């Protein structure tokens, strides 16, 4: 996650999904924790500029309250996760982990310093989300890649399976952002990662929710066969079966 992405089309999809999973006015609140894997803003591409939806009623009407809040943030030119946290976009009581995932100048730091900071960051996130039922992870790229070990200068762009395991073992349901790449077709990547998650998290049910606007993004919902898991699955299916089904799809 980078601050420059706040308010773009991917952000709209992300917060709309979280709002639906955590609560509606008619349903009990599911306590939500948000782990922003905050990475320094980069400027080598146009990512974060895709805010066209703010002026398109067909998309915006899916969640007008959310659109108005994001419009205000974008118009302020102060796009940041801090602005999201203070805008009331997510349900009351949501816990936010907003400490940067890496040191200010990762490339210039040592491997030891990077790993030490990462360990401290993880422990802080665990402490803050202790009472959460659903924990959302928002890395810049997604779930770990073999080419980028945790001590790498670019490791801040990923969340690692052993880090997710700390939350899973404590009993949380997980929602993890992941960006598909061009190494193989989307369906094959989704199937491969689904099996990987099931293999790493014993007893997990995995529901990949693929957002199809712009670049292909997957939100991995990982949950147990429990009252909480069943309710999250029901809410996710409800989300997919309303107006959002034009923009999202579930892979079986």
What attributes does this structure have?
252 residues, alpha/beta, Rossmann fold, two-stranded parallel ribbon, 8 helices, 16% strand
Topology readout:
Elements: H1 9-22, E1 32-36, H2 57-60, H3 64-76, H4 81-86, E2 95-97, H5 111-128, E3 134-138, E4 142-143, E5 158-159, H6 161-169, E6 173-179, H7 186-200, E7 205-211, E8 217-223, H8 227-240, E9 248-250
Parallel strand pairs: 1-2, 1-3, 3-6, 4-5
Antiparallel strand pairs: 6-8, 7-8, 7-9
Helix pairs in contact: 1-8
Describe the structure.
This protein has 252 residues and is of the alpha/beta class. The chain has a single domain, classed as Rossmann fold (3-Layer(aba) Sandwich), CATH 3.40.50. The protein contains 8 helices and 9 strands. It has helices spanning 9-22, 57-60, 64-76, 81-86, 111-128, 161-169, 186-200, 227-240, and strands at residues 32-36, 95-97, 134-138, 142-143, 158-159, 173-179, 205-211, 217-223, 248-250. The strands form 2 sheets. Strands 2-1-3-6-8-7-9 form a 7-stranded mixed β-sheet, sandwiched between helices. A hairpin with a 5-residue loop joins strand 7 (205-211) and strand 8 (217-223). Helix 1 (9-22) packs across helix 8. The protein is globular. The model has no long low-confidence stretch (mean pLDDT 87).
